[in-house]
């Protein structure tokens, strides 16, 4: 898997979602990206709901008009363990906050899927209630 991944990934770019221009425009087509994927990132790098909202708004600047955002994230999570005894804080969000944040940032919600974690899926590395 590692060899295949190295053969298809051409570059890793620095992104700072807390900047109004999170990625250097030289790496994007002039019209913007067709699609962005954020997987467990925005809630992990945001200190609170307002900073999550700002980050969500900032990444919208990377999308072309009519582009898509696939947002995957944790619900109800306040921490995750980066290593033994290293608890990394996360802004805990619920479904209504995520929907309100998307709307406030100008996104049109096309589909929302919520997965609630059953007790047997909770292994102690975080306090997530759903995805």
In short:
The chain has helices at 2-8, 42-45, 49-60, 95-104, and strands at 33-39, 63-72, 79-83, 86-89. It has 131 residues and is α+β, with helices and mostly antiparallel strands.
Supply the key terms.
131 residues; two-stranded antiparallel sheet; NNMT_TEMT_trans; globular; two-stranded parallel ribbon; methyltransferase activity; 25% helix; alpha+beta; 4 helices
Question: What do you see in this structure?
Answer:
With 131 residues, the protein is an alpha+beta fold. Helices cover 25% and strands 20% of the residues. It has 4 helices and 4 strands; from the N terminus they run H-E-H-H-E-E-E-H. The strands form 2 sheets. Strands 1-2 form a two-stranded parallel sheet. It has a two-stranded antiparallel ribbon with strand order 3-4. A hairpin with a 2-residue loop joins strand 3 (79-83) and strand 4.
* Count of extended strands: 4
N to C succession of SSEs = HEHHEEEH
Low-confidence stretches: none
**Alpha carbon gyration radius:** 16 Å
The percent range for strand residues is: 15-25%
Strand order of the largest sheet: 1-2
Individual helix count: 4
Q: Which oligomeric state applies?
A: single chain
Walk me through the topology.
Elements: H1 2-8, E1 33-39, H2 42-45, H3 49-60, E2 63-72, E3 79-83, E4 86-89, H4 95-104
Helix pairs in contact: 3-4
GO molecular function: methyltransferase activity
Keywords: Methyltransferase, S-adenosyl-L-methionine, Transferase
Protein name: Phenylethanolamine N-methyltransferase
């Amino acid at each position: 898997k590692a060899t295949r991944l190295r053969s298809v990934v051409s570059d890793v770019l620095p992104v700072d979602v807390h900047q109004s221009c999170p990625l250097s425009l030289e790496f994007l087509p002039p019209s913007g990206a067709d699609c962005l994927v954020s997987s467990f990132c925005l809630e992990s790098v945001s200190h609170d709901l307002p900073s999550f909202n700002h980050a969500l708004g900032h990444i919208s600047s990377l999308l072309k008009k009519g582009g898509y955002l696939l947002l995957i994230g944790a619900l109800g999570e306040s921490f995750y363990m980066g290593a033994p005894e290293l608890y990394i804080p996360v802004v805990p969000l619920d479904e209504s906050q995520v929907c309100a944040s998307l709307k406030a940032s100008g996104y049109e919600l096309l589909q929302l899927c919520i997965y609630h974690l059953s007790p047997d899926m909770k292994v102690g590395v975080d306090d997530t209630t759903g995805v």
